[in-house]
TrEMBL record:
InterPro entries: Cullin_repeat-like_dom_sf, Exo70, Exo70_C. One of its GO terms (cellular component) is exocyst. Belongs to the EXO70 family. Pfam families: Exo70_C (PF03081), Exo70_N (PF20669). This is Exocyst subunit Exo70 family protein. PANTHER family: EXOCYST COMPLEX PROTEIN EXO70, EXOCYST SUBUNIT EXO70 FAMILY PROTEIN. Gene3D superfamilies: Exocyst complex component Exo70 (1.20.1280.170). Component of the exocyst complex. One of its GO terms (molecular function) is phosphatidylinositol-4,5-bisphosphate binding. Residues 283-637 form the Exocyst complex subunit Exo70 C-terminal domain. Keywords: Exocytosis, Protein transport, Transport. One of its GO terms (biological process) is protein transport.
């Protein structure tokens, strides 16, 4: 091939190769330019937005700056206060509260002021931001997507402010944490300064109201007041009230714990008769007075010192009193009213009424508010039941005494314990201790029926009971088969009425003539008793036909033996018959025995001195000279003694309304505190 012809081909090949290399270079350049073009494509919208204000109206562009400044100013102020809030976190969460409560409260007030500023101005700042966004949107000053993002952020702000935990979102829960620390300090101050009161054995019990001193020092109360001020300002007063009630309730309970108030838990089913809880009622009266005049008086004063609001003060005190035990005292009184009726229950009901009436002014002052409605209702119900129960028993007494008339007389001829009990009982009812209380109860009860009650009605009712007793022993005396025992019984009864009532209030009402009549009847029946019993024995020692000069010695001896045998038999029979008879009064017993001795012994002594030698020389003299003078005196002097375990109670086969039965009174309690089982 001609080399000359190949040269153009070589040149063309080189040209093609160069073109190919350039194409490759251009392709590579295009590959590198692609991402840049994409970047430019993505930047075009923002560039468009950046230059858009230039396309907005001149007025819109001129005013947008003012709108932005007005919106940014409040927002910047809010941010500065927000930063200040977080600057208070350290002192509020430190232990400064114990050592410097006033300083802590000062910092807390700054926090409250800052939060109030934020609360007041956050809305304003958001409103300004809303306005500028609206302006930007309406005047197309900003890109639509940019405005949409701003709207989204503002919506989040609105939702945050409307939520329940908006406050904690602002301060991170700092205010709540600070208030909780304040409440803990409130509890600590109360607990460390609450000391239980103790009831002294010689606790004063006068009629004057006792103003108990404050149980918490004044400087501590001032601190409590400062804490309550901040709690009230932040709507957390109820929390502090709850803390106060818890702490003070525990303290009052601790004060009452040492009194051993287990008896307050007794139920009516646990009580056989009011006598079984008689000592409990006495303790109840003392403990209730201590609780009201000392414990609850102090709590009332403390509530007044700590709480300014009357409603809060009343509610707080009422809750402490109810939770601490005042209701238990009142419920115990209700339990006593539910026990079965008997005479002693009347006295105990009067004791309860006296205690409540003594504390009436204190109850009205301490528990008179609306918050103490439960205590008021229970107290009112208790007083009503006490009055109704006392009146029912009192008016039933006469009926019960009359029912005892059907009983057989006491076998020993002694004064029935019913009589001893009732005479002493009536004396107590109209004595200075119970008469004013009973009269007040009867007056109140009649007033409920729109009726009047005068003291004379009370006196007449009691005197009717005594007159019924008189009729009783007249009837009982006719129930004896042994008339001599009937005389002894009447002697006992008349002596009891005279001696038991003389010098008493009841005796004064019955009158001196009435008492003298009983004394005279006592003397009369004593004389009749002696005449019809021991007075008949001296006649058996007749001296008739014993003049030894007119009859033989043997005949005289036989007559003496016969008469001594008759005397001994009569004496033994009478002594045996009267061995179980009783004269309770020691003076009357000794006098009766002495009169019996005087009726028999002198005659017997003289007879034995004159005719004793006739039989003493006989081998069977012991059968006739059976007693020495000293033996007779000793035997007669031992009569009418009170036997151990003697029981002269009456058990009624018929009970009025099933409320009363027998009465048993300890002999040692005739003049003090009669005890009855009914």
């Amino acid at each position: 091939m001609d080399l000359g012809n190949l040269e153009p081909l070589v040149t063309a090949r080189k040209s093609l190769r160069a073109s190919l290399d350039k194409s490759k270079a251009l392709a590579a350049a295009l590959d590198r330019a692609g991402p840049r073009l994409d970047e430019i494509h993505h930047r075009l919208p923002s560039l468009e937005a950046a230059v858009r204000p230039i396309r907005a109206s001149k007025d819109a562009l001129l005013s947008v700056g003012g709108h932005i400044d007005r919106a940014v100013g409040p927002a910047a102020a809010v941010l500065r206060v927000f930063d200040a809030v977080h600057g208070l976190e350290r002192p509020l969460l430190s232990d400064q509260i114990r050592s410097d409560l006033a300083g802590y409260l000062s910092v807390l007030k700054r926090l409250e002021e800052a939060l109030r500023f934020l609360s007041d101005n956050c809305g304003l700042a958001v409103q300004w931001l809303d306005d500028i966004v609206e302006y930007l949107e309406e005047n197309s000053v900003a890109d639509a997507r940019f405005v949409a993002e701003l709207k989204k952020s503002l919506n989040l702000l609105h939702e945050s402010r409307a939520s329940e935990d908006a406050q904690s979102r602002v301060d991170g829960g700092l205010l709540i944490a600070s208030l909780e620390r304040l409440e803990s300090e409130f509890r600590r101050l109360l607990e460390e300064n609450s000391v239980p009161l103790s009831m002294s054995p010689s606790q004063p019990s006068d009629q004057h109201r006792i103003i108990a001193p404050s149980l918490i020092p004044t400087n501590i109360i001032q601190k409590l007041l400062l804490i309550l001020e901040r709690a009230t300002a932040n709507g957390r007063l109820e929390r502090c009230v709850s803390i106060y009630v818890d702490v003070r309730t525990i303290n009052v309970r601790a004060s009452l714990k040492d009194l051993d108030l287990v008896y307050l838990e007794v139920t009516a089913a646990d009580i056989d008769s009011v006598r079984s809880v008689e000592t409990h009622i006495e303790r109840w009266a003392r403990h209730l007075e201590f609780a009201v005049k000392h414990l609850f008086e102090a709590e009332y004063k403390l509530c007044s010192d700590v709480f300014d609001n009357n409603n809060v003060r009343s509610e707080c005190f009422a809750t402490v009193a109810a939770n601490a035990g005042i209701l238990a005292f009142l419920k115990f009184g209700m339990t006593v009213t539910e026990t079965k009726n008997d005479p002693i229950k009347l006295l105990k009901l009067l004791d309860i009424f006296r205690s409540l009436n003594k504390l009436r002014l204190d109850f009205n002052r301490l528990f008179g508010g609306k918050a103490c409605l439960e205590i008021q209702n229970l107290t009112r119900d208790l007083i009503k039941k006490v009055i109704e129960g006392a009146c029912e028993i009192f008016w039933e007494l006469l009926v019960q005494v009359e029912l005892q008339r059907q009983m057989p007389p006491p076998a020993d001829g002694a004064v029935p314990r019913l009589v001893s009990f009732i005479t002493d009982y009536c004396n107590r009812l109209i004595g200075d201790d119970y008469r004013p209380v009973l009269l007040q109860v009867l007056v109140i009860h009649r007033s409920w029926k729109q009726e009047r009650f005068q003291e004379r009605l009370l006196i007449d009712a009691v005197l009717n009971i005594i007159r019924a007793l008189e009729q009783n022993f007249e009837v009982w005396s006719k129930g004896y088969d042994d008339q001599v025992l009937a005389y002894l019984f009447m002697m006992n009864m008349h002596h009891h009425f005279y001696k038991a009532l003389k010098g008493t209030r009841l005796g004064e009402l019955l009158g001196e003539v009435w008492l003298k009549e009983h004394e005279q009847y006592k003397e009369y029946y004593m004389a009749v008793y002696l005449k019809e019993s021991w007075g008949k024995l001296p006649a058996l020692l007749s001296r008739e036909g014993l003049i030894m000069f007119s009859v033989g010695r043997a005949t005289a001896r036989d007559s003496v033996k016969k008469r001594l045998r008759g005397f001994n038999e009569a004496f033994d029979e009478m002594y045996k018959r009267q061995t179980n008879w009783v004269v309770l009064d020691k003076d009357l017993r000794e006098r009766t025995c002495q009169l019996a001795v005087q009726a028999i012994v002198p005659v017997y002594r003289s007879y034995m001195q004159s005719y004793g030698p006739l039989v003493e020389q006989d081998a069977s003299s012991a059968k006739y000279a059976k007693y020495t003078v000293q033996a007779l005196e000793k035997m007669l002097g031992s009569l009418f003694q009170v036997k151990p375990g003697r029981s002269a109670s009456f058990t009624s086969p018929q009970q009025s309304n099933g409320k009363f039965g027998s009465v048993v009174v300890s002999p040692s309690k005739y003049s003090t505190s009669p005890t009855a089982v009914v």
